[in-house]
Every structure is written in C-alpha cells, then in structure tokens.
C-alpha cells in the first residue's frame, strides 16, 4: 500500500478485512501549506483531494471557508469536507472531468467565482471558463516524495513476497519506481501486479516496463480494492 497516511492505513484495513496481508509503505508525505484566502469574494469551494479538506480543518479562517458550499470530486473527499465542518457538500462521485461537468450543471451562467483548494503538484486545472465560471486556485497542501523504501519492503521485494502494489496517484507510482531503482530492485519491483486508480496513474509504470497493470473501472477506492479480489 503506497498511499499516504492517514488514508493508507484506512485502505489497508479494508483489504485486511478481505483476507489480504498488507504492508503499508507511504511513498508520499502530505504537508499542509499555510495558505491565504484571496481578496476576491467566492461563491463556493472546490476540492479534488481529502488532503485539501484536512488543510481547512487547521486553517485560522476555517469557519469562513466552511460556511461556503463545497464541490468535491468523490465521496471520500466529500466525507473529509464534512469532517472539516462544511455543511453543504456536493460530490461528483467521479474523476476531475466529472467534477467540471457537475459544477457546470449547477453553477453555469451565474458568473460565480470558485475557490479551488489544490495540491502543489496536480494533474491539471479546473477548466470551467466555458461555463461562465472563474476559478481562483490556492495551494493548500503539498505531497513530498520519500527517498527510500522501508527495510521491510526492501526485504519483501528482494524475496519476491509482494504479489500486488496499489497506486492512488501518478506521483506515488513514480516514487515507487525511484525507490526501487535506488534499492537496486527495479526488476523485482516491476514483477508484481500493479493496481491503479486510473489509466493516467499507470503511465509511468507502463513506461518502466510493468506488464501486469490493472486499472480500476472507476476512480474510487472501492473499485480499486475490488481489483485485488
């Protein structure tokens, strides 16, 4: 399990409940960024990661932010938004493209300005201009790659004891390859089945030569867990 904490252990427990033996080795460390709110008025908050909602939890303007409606990419982010204090949470239950369409059907033509609480490194921006909306993007968190596998992962890879690896982001997939190369275990690290949340996440693995790649039919935790059988 390469997912950052606290989500990595939570997902691992769901896999263990299905009979899997899971080693948690977060390959990204999430750090909150002390962000400032824009001076312009905004009508809603957009979040594509639960990490953004967690950043709001510790923000000095939390009450002001959570008083706004929140649009989220999926259910997990929606749950984190509610835990952070948002009362009006609307989930697209899909990927980034689904979120853009979801927002467009509910706010198109209003001229509303959206506050996007984003990660420092992200797959793309929210393209909602065609729907008469504008976005103010604020970096609320960053994900830092770890440099090395934990010793137990090195030992497990070296002995061929890992059957599958779960990837929840493209950056963690790349971090996996980088750590494997530093440990001199790249060939061993490519051998297990690699279960990916999306086709985009699988790209660096495929480029590195991984053959056994399986992609979740939906970009949701439950769909990825189901791939593990």
Report what the structure shows.
With 229 residues, the chain is of the alpha/beta class. The mean pLDDT is 92. It has two domains: 103 residues, Rossmann fold, CATH 3.40.50.10090; 114 residues, Rossmann fold. The two termini are 15 Å apart.
**DSSP summary, beta strand count:** 9
Oligomer: single chain
Global outline: elongated
- Percent strand equals 15-25%
Number of helices: 10
Structural class estimated from helices and strands:
alpha/beta
Alpha carbon gap, first and last residue: 15 Å
Question: Main beta sheet, described?
Answer: 6 strands, mixed
Q: Please give the CATH architecture of the largest domain.
A: 3-Layer(aba) Sandwich
Radius of gyration: 19 Å
The average pLDDT is 92
Give, in order, the helices and strands: HEEHHEHEHEEHEHHEHEH
Quick take:
With 229 residues, this protein is of the alpha/beta class. 39% of the residues lie in helices and 20% in strands.
Write the topology of this structure.
Blueprint: H1 7-17, E1 28-32, E2 44-47, H2 50-57, H3 62-66, E3 70-72, H4 75-84, E4 89-91, H5 96-107, E5 113-119, E6 134-145, H6 151-158, E7 164-167, H7 170-182, H8 186-190, E8 193-196, H9 199-208, E9 213-215, H10 221-227
Parallel strand pairs: 2-3, 2-5, 3-4, 5-6, 7-8, 8-9
Antiparallel strand pairs: 1-6
Helix pairs in contact: 2-4, 7-9
